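Question (not urgent): is this output format expected?
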Amino acid sequence: MTGKSTQIAIGIGAGALAAPGIAAAQAPGGTTVQVDFDAFAMFVNAEPVVKAVMLILLAASFVSWTLCVVKLREFRSGLLAVEAATVRLASAKSLSDVDGLDSATARMAQAAVDEIAQSASLIQAGSIAGAGQRAEDRIARIEGDAVATMRRGLPVFASIGSVGPFVGLFGTVWGIMHSFTGIAAAKTTSLAVVAPGISEALLATALGLVAAIPATVMYNYLVRRLAVYRGALEMTATLVAGLAGREIEDMALAAGRKQAAFIPQARSA
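Got this back:
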């Protein structure tokens, strides 16, 4: 047993000196078998199921990185647009004075203007609170839609981060099962039989972690960016609602003054 172990150790050492990533193992009958431990070679020589798992994990990693770049640009442009709209709204006197808004803020302002126009007769009759509440409801719905749109794609990161390691583990278990089957068929525990299958199986686990860890980090970062965007959009919605409330009150005040001026004229007539 000691002599056989020595032969295996010597074979591995000689193979390592011969070429990087390649080791030599002593197979039954005294022959030396070259075992390639290069990552690409292990992928090529892997079982079809293990190879499919690796391809799925590589595709998931590509999707997460691509989506991360897209979402970072989307968050950056959206946040800059909302911040610019906030500056314009803060100095505006009415909703009609504001222009150059981003799509979400423009839809909020337009919804408020539409509600004021539709409720003009009620406002002039003194129903200020109802019109203001309806305008705020419209603004809140648009705000929620904008946040939901910005949130799209984030569940992909969560799914890859949580499922990726288990997919890799499935490939590992399958590869080890195949290795044990090879051991039983060859009736030997030589490294020439055991090492390749186990290496391929462990590579599947490594790829699972490569896909899952960045996806988890991306998800946590983008969730924080979403919270920043939501806070900025809430500030914008508050400013739009404030301008809408001011216009409603101005309309009601103008109607009250007109009615007050009309009463003395009626009495004198």
